[in-house]
Structure formats: C-alpha cells, structure tokens
Amino acid sequence: MVGIGNALVDVIASAEEVFLLEQGLVKGSMTLIETERAVELYAALDGAVEMSGGSAANTMCGIASFGGRAGYIGKVNGDDLGDVFGHDMRAVGVTFHRPPGKHTTPTGRCVVVVTPDAERTMNTYLGVSSFLGVDDLDESAIADSSVVYMEGYLYDRPAAKEAFRQAAHIAHENDGLVALTLSDSFCVDRHRSDFRALVQDRVDLLFGNHDELLALYELDSFDASVAALRDECEFAVITTGAAGCIIVTPDELIEVPAVHVEKVIDTTGAGDLFASGFLYGLVSGRDLAECGRIGAVAAAEVISHVGPRPLVQLNSLLGDG
Q1: pTM of the prediction?
Q2: Under DSSP, is residue 112 helix (H, G, I), strand (E, B) or coil?
Q3: ∠ CA(64), CA(69), CA(74), 5° rounding?
Q4: pLDDT per position as a tens digit, 85-119
Q5: CA Rg value for the chain
Q6: Residue ranges, the chain, pLDDT below 50
Q7: 3-state helix/strand/coil string of 41-109
Q8: What is the CATH number of domain 2-317?
Q9: Where are the domains positioned within the chain?
C-alpha cells in the first residue's frame, strides 16, 4: 500500500506542565507555526529526539514493520532534513517516492512536547510538504497499490486537495481501496465541508476518533454521528482511546477492546500505528474484529515508549507466526 501525507521530521522532547505555560502552548493541541517559532521552540527544549515523521509516514512504517509492502509519497526539500527523512524511511523498508527538485521552502518539521501524563502537544511547521500537488504523485505506485492511505493533515492547499482526488481516482481505476484519516479535530473544523465531500465521493474507509467524528457532523451524539456517517461512507473505524475502537459497517457496530499497557509513556503516533495494524489485517484477509485487534496491538506498542514508530518488529507481537 502507499501513503500520501506531510513529510515532516519530528522533534520530540519530554517537558513538565510548566513548560507549556511558559511557552503559551495549549495542552493536547496541534498548532501550525512558522519558521521563527519552530526555531524558538526547538531552542527551548532539552534532550530532543529527531526522526522522520508525519502521520501517514508513521502508518507506512508500521505496515513495513508488520512485514507488508509499503510506499510513501511526500514532499521534502533537497536539504539535510530532507535527506534524513528519505534515509529513515528507506531504512525501515518503506519505498520513498520523493518528488525531484530543490525548493526555496525548507523541509517541514513537527515539534512535539510530551508531558508526564503522556499527553502530546504538537507544533507543526509544514514547510515544503504542504505544497504537494498532482505533479508530485507517483501514479504507477498508486496504481500498483491495494490501498491508498491519505492523511487529513495534508488536506489544506487547493493543490493538495486536487492531488488527493487524483490519487483516489487512480486507485479506483485500478481496483484499489481509498482510505482517509481525519487526523485531528483541528483539521476537521478547518475543512469540514471538503472532508465530507471527499468522504462521499472518493473514500472507501474512514479513520477517525470519537471527537473527530462528532466534529465532522457537528453533532453531540455519537449514535447520530454514526448514522450520518453511514449515509456518506459505510465503512469506518472510530478509535475511542482506552476503550479501543468501533468498526462501523452497513449492518453493525463491531467493538474491539484496546490492548492493556502497564504504563503509557507517549501517545504520539497511537492513531497512526493503529491504522497500520488495521490495514495490514485488512489486506491480509483477516476479519474486521481481528483487524481491530491487530491495530490495538500496534497502538499499544507505540504508546509504551517515546516516539511515533515501533521499536520492535510488529509482526512478532501477533502470536500467529
């Protein structure tokens, strides 16, 4: 399968609650920032860890960790961070379909502050990643994929919106499944009407969490939101935190519990890795409940340590060889 999203380098650091107050950060939020603010936050953090990141990129790394074939389409500059991003992806077995060229805008990065309760506060400088357009798509990679997975964080500029629709068109022309993750309630609020149009016209499988689903339909009731969702996209997976997930089909709701974790260290990447497990199960022919279980296994692994990607081969955790 292939993922399409914002190609970012993650800068992750642990900090006390007071750091958020001193820096004027809203706990648990995702805030878009400019270059100067990104540099300022980076300088204020101690002991930061840097690694290639981005939501859909994390999901594709999870697919590779399960033993699946994964590719990724994202835009970076020909700078040091762009080289690091590509190297990191290839090192874990993900084919990076990198658009050619040198750009004036730097490679994007996401500064992630993790507080002692494992909550993450993200400050994202999108850089050149947000300029991805139709010309940056690797159409042959999309056509060859059983699943095209698109990241809501990227769905901002008109060029990116057109790229999403073109990628979905190519996938469907080649009998591929199109999946979309809503990414964040912030994204939903910004692009609600466009997201709903995309879901109705092009998306086969929608990923989101409880709050994102309510925001998408501007409803207070989960049941009412599910009913509205079924009218527009019959197949969806809604994560519900420590309770697990609910799989929405035309005829039923399948509830799958989360995998117990002794101590949650960092929730960064939990949704991304859940999606990787679910999709891996789906393309492997597992039933939907088992897909949810595999997603829960992947999410449990990634929240047990700092960073949005697994530290062990995920297929070793399945217990089925």
Answers
A1: 0.89
A2: strand
A3: 80
A4: 999 999 999 999 887 767 788 889 888 898 999 88
A5: 18
A6: 321
A7: HHHHCCCCEEEEECHHHHHHHHHHHHCCCEEEECCCCCCHHHHHHHHHHHHCCEEEECCCCCCCCCEEE
A8: 3.40.1190.20
A9: 2-317
